[in-house]
Task: inverse folding
């Protein structure tokens, strides 16, 4: 299992409170810390965020993901973490970056927000792949402009 | 330095409560003030000057002797902490080099309210798996704990138990269980303050010591945070693992008066939390201790009951609905306790299943019922209830065949009554034993049918001799819906060629209805309440006189 790649998809409820600037600032912090940590652990992926929730895809080796996920689980800036998929994968779908941030005004968040609203955070209504496809579609579009 | 200043300084150092010493880099003591001597358990009046510091028993005891040597040899200022038994407050040492190569040492007990309890290194006080302190460490802290600062006026014990831990091990193995404990330990640790202590006391139980100060930081909110964290998914061995944690809390001056009671009370609260489901937090209340005591006495009395011959068996007659003849009796245990009166199986059998006493009691029932049935005038059947727990030991087949051999009861007169939970627990094993029992020639009845899952596949997988229709259906027979259900169970029995018998028949109307619907047998108060063994002879002859 040492060189087996895994993919983790989860959604969670955003618990960051405060005005737009505070929220924005916290998100920037999350992103910069994640970018750094994930680059070291060789984890790639994507983070989606809007006012209500986070959604994240992480790709990497089993133990690296486990470590990273434990950090994520203990973070009080979100709650109700629901794992939608944790599975083996052949190759990375997001190989060229470690994280991407989509603010509340992006298409992806709008689309994702709709799904979340329909499902009221009920994971059983969402399939991991559905989320992944939404993430994938929009993040690949955005790839040239990202870091 | 003027003499006057030197004298003031000398006096101050001598009288100070801070330990102060000047030693060589090799640890030879040149000067030590009384406080320093006291801390290191060196007698001030003995000639401590010229002694080697590392040779003092207090230092030798501790494994950090090499750390101390290292710190003394270090030309830069060093800071080390020693954890010295039996006093668990750590010893903080500041060591600085003077120009002439000598070392100045300042020694203090503890470090304010910070890092009060850090388990000493070494396996004695540590849980090897999680790296936390262990039970021994916890006992030491509790034995030595005192309210010592405005931040630590009182102490709470938060006892955390992982729900469904055994299920994780069953499904994913012990390795995954170990990983889960490690990850859980880290999560809990992330929720606690620096001055609190987390230990693993064994298995899947963690204990957190939570100091309560003037500004109480809610013990309960810490507990809820832990429950919340533990409820979040873990990723282990390529799987997503979901568990929950239950928590019991006991706090000094909040229902618990002495430190020695803290752990026990937290455990009571934890039981209570688990009783009301998973992921609960419960505070200890004095009534819980009372409940536990009552239960404890009950358990003790129950344990003695078999030897003191306080159990008796009552027999409830069963009749054939087709011709009204007497078929047999169901053996029903009662506990006749001088102080408690006559207790029914529901009052005590569940507890014997928990304690394991059911094995001995179950064997006694089988033996007694078969022996007493031999004294009856007629070849009546005797039904004996067998607990699912009795099937776990794999001895049930031997026990039954021994009882038959010892009492001489023909196997076809014995009918074992089981509930479907026997099959739910470990289907393959239960089925194997049921077949072995059947090959002895005894009947196997499915008891309480209609409640629970009532899975038809069970009826299909094993040739039961009888289906006993639960009394709740018989009592509700007047409602059209229930009647249809009873009718379908009866026709199910007819189709599978299994005899159906209704329990709890209380009125003539129910009796006639069941007979009309094709039910084969009945038992209940209409026919007779359970009767003691010595009344059976008379019952049988009365019954014969009535029907002839």
Result:
């Amino acid at each position: 299992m040492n060189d087996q790649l895994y993919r983790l998809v989860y959604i969670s409820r955003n618990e960051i409170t405060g005005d737009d600037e505070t929220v924005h600032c916290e998100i920037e912090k999350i992103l910069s810390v994640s970018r750094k940590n994930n680059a070291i652990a060789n984890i790639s992926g994507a983070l989606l965020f809007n006012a209500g929730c986070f959604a994240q895809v992480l790709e990497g080796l089993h133990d690296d993901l486990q470590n990273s996920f434990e950090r994520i689980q203990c973070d009080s800036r979100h709650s109700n973490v629901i794992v939608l998929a944790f599975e083996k994968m052949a190759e990375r779908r997001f190989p060229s970056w470690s994280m991407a941030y989509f603010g509340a005004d992006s298409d992806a968040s709008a689309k994702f927000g709709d799904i979340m609203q329909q499902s009221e955070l009920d994971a059983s209504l969402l399939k991991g792949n559905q989320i992944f496809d939404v993430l994938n579609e929009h993040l690949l579009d955005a790839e040239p402009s990202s870091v | 330095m003027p003499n006057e200043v030197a004298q003031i300084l000398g006096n101050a150092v001598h009288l100070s409560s801070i330990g102060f010493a000047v030693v060589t880099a090799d640890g030879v003591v040149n000067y030590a003030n009384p406080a320093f001597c006291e801390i290191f358990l060196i007698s001030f009046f003995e000639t401590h000057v010229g002694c080697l510091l590392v040779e003092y028993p207090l230092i030798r005891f501790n494994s950090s002797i090499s750390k101390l040597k290292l710190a003394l040899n270090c030309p830069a200022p060093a800071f080390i902490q020693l954890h010295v038994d039996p006093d668990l407050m750590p010893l903080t040492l500041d060591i600085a080099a003077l120009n002439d190569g000598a070392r100045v040492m300042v020694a203090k007990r503890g470090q304010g309210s910070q890092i009060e309890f850090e388990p000493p290194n070494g396996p004695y006080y540590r849980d090897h798996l999680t790296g936390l302190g262990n039970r021994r460490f916890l006992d030491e802290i509790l034995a030595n704990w005192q309210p010592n600062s405005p931040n630590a006026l009182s102490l709470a014990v938060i006892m955390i138990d992982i729900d469904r831990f055994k299920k994780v091990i069953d499904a994913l193995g012990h390795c995954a269980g170990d990983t889960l404990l490690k990850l859980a330990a880290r999560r809990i640790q992330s929720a606690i303050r620096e001055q609190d202590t987390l230990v693993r006391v064994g298995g899947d139980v963690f204990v957190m010591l939570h100091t309560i100060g003037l500004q109480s930081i809610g013990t309960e909110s810490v507990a809820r945070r832990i429950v919340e964290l533990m409820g979040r998914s873990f990723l282990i061995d390529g799987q997503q693992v979901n568990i929950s944690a239950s928590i019991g809390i006991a706090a000094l001056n909040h229902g618990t008066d002495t430190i020695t009671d803290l752990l026990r009370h937290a455990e009571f609260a934890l039981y209570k939390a688990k009783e009301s489901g998973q992921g609960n937090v419960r505070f200890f209340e004095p009534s819980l201790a009372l409940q536990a005591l009552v239960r404890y006495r009950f358990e003790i009395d129950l344990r003695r009951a078999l030897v003191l011959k306080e159990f008796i068996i009552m027999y409830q007659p069963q009749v054939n609905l087709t011709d009204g003849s007497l078929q047999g009796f169901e053996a029903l245990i009662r506990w006749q306790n001088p102080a408690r009166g006559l207790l029914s199986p529901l009052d005590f059998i569940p507890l014997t299943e928990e304690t394991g006493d059911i094995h001995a009691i179950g064997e006694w029932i089988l033996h007694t019922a078969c022996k007493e049935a031999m004294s009856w005038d007629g070849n009546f059947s005797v039904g004996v209830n067998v607990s699912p727990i009795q099937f776990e030991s794999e001895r049930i087949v031997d026990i039954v065949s021994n009882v038959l051999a010892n009492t001489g009861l023909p196997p076809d007169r014995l009918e074992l009554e089981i509930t479907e939970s026997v099959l739910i627990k470990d289907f393959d094993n239960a089925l194997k034993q049921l077949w072995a029992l059947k090959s002895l020639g005894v009947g196997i009845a499915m008891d309480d049918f209609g409640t629970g899952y009532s899975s038809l596949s069970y009826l299909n997988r094993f040739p039961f001799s009888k289906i006993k229709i639960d009394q709740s259906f018989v009592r509700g027979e007047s409602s059209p819906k229930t009647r249809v259900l009873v009718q379908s169970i009866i026709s199910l029995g007819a189709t599978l060629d299994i005899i159906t018998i209704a329990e709890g028949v209380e009125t003539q109307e129910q009796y006639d209805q069941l007979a009309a619907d094709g039910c084969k047998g009945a038992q209940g108060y209409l026919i007779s309440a359970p009767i003691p063994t010595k009344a059976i002879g008379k019952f049988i002859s009365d019954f014969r006189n009535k029907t002839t």
